Amino acid sequence: MTEEKKFNVSKLNKFINKFSSNVFVQSIANGMLMILPITVVGSMSTLIGLIPNLPETLAKASSLGTMIASNLISVYVVIALSYALARERKGEIIPSIILSMACFFVLTPVSSFEIAEDKTVMAFDLTYLGSKGMFVGMIVALVVTWTFLKMVEKRITLRMPEAIPTKIAAQFEAIIPAAIIFFVGLAISVIFSTTAYGNIHDFIYTNLQTPLEAMGSSIWSVLLIMFISELLWFFGIHGGMVVSSIIAVLFTTQAYANMEAVANGEVATNIINSFFLDTYKGPRAIALACILVWASKSEKFKTIGKISFIPGIFGITEPMKFGIPMIMNIPIFIPLTLSAAVSVAIAYVATIIGFLPVVSINVPKMFPAFISGFIASGWRGLVVQLIQFVAVVALYWPFMKKMDKENLLLEQETVEVTADGH
């Protein structure tokens, strides 16, 4: 590699590392990961509700489980992202979460309706606590937590006497920044209530969330992100970690909108969503491991395949990426960068032709290939992942066979040299 190329790769690495280590990017990625358990449980409730001839009691229970997981997702997002950011900044976690939640509810419209002649109920609209409120939840959690911790750090607080225990003093010191932030939230709520939007949720949804969802619903944007993710791996950068926050912003709301639709007895319509991508990025790891184990003749590739086979079942590619290696290895550039995009394209086509149902179930991305497809979409999901498996093998095959042949020749030459030496 020339000095100029080394310099360019070094600059790229620095830029990507700076982006991926940004405190807000890290908080979004880690926070969205924290809500995985409740979304998986909600998906399990959805699966139970799909069982034919289910007793009415169980059907109602499964519907409630899905509703609680999906229709309150913005609340969970606020808690998770506020926690993640406070932890990243090593600040007060509980006060940050409470203040973020208070500001989120202040900005969320409350409706009133009569349930009897003499009784009126005030309630939050679940529409704004579900997927429609996710962007507001993200913004509130990050802005409120960061501002609160920054004010505490800059000592914009009540100064307590040293004799007061630290834990008690910390709570009193939080009063001024909490009051300032809370009343700013109230002011924002009042201001938006006088506009045509009525509240900040509808303003954000119309001007930010809807355009981003439109971008996220484009198959071309998905394929580009899949390509970039693997391209970063080619340069030795963990592409999955870098694009995880982008995927969360662009594709998560569609996933929970699908869950909400199913919970309400409606049909899921968002083909491209984060659940879809987690399930149908393709069984690439196990496909490549199979080539190494059963189609390779060189000892190096066979050994790497044996080491990588079990991790490959769970989608872990690092043993192969560093063992083959796939990083900065020109001969493997094409299959490395295209395999995820090809896999997603196969699943997308299968969905738009009506073979594969729209995904509304969150299957953890570490679930074994073929099992994950079956859980997400029944036998059709299993078939699609088998097709993806064949496509990935076909894509890698000519490149891996060429590299295997070269490795085998090198091994034979080494054996001959060693034999001659003795």
Automatic annotation (TrEMBL):
The reply to whether Transmembrane figures as a keyword in the UniProt entry is yes
Q: Which UniProt keywords apply?
A: Cell membrane, Membrane, Phosphotransferase system, Sugar transport, Transmembrane, Transmembrane helix, Transport
Topology relative to the lipid bilayer, per the entry, is: Multi-pass membrane protein
**Biological-process GO terms, alphabetical:** carbohydrate derivative transport; phosphoenolpyruvate-dependent sugar phosphotransferase system
Domain PTS EIIC type-3 positions: 8-399
The record ties this protein, via InterPro entries, to: PTS_EIIC, PTS_EIIC_3, PTS_IIC_cello, PTS_Sugar-EIIC/EIIB
Under PROSITE patterns, the record lists:
PTS_EIIC_TYPE_3
Biological role: The phosphoenolpyruvate-dependent sugar phosphotransferase system (PTS), a major carbohydrate active -transport system, catalyzes the phosphorylation of incoming sugar substrates concomitant with their translocation across the cell membrane.
Matching entries from NCBIfam families are given as: lacE
Q: What is this protein called?
A: Permease IIC component
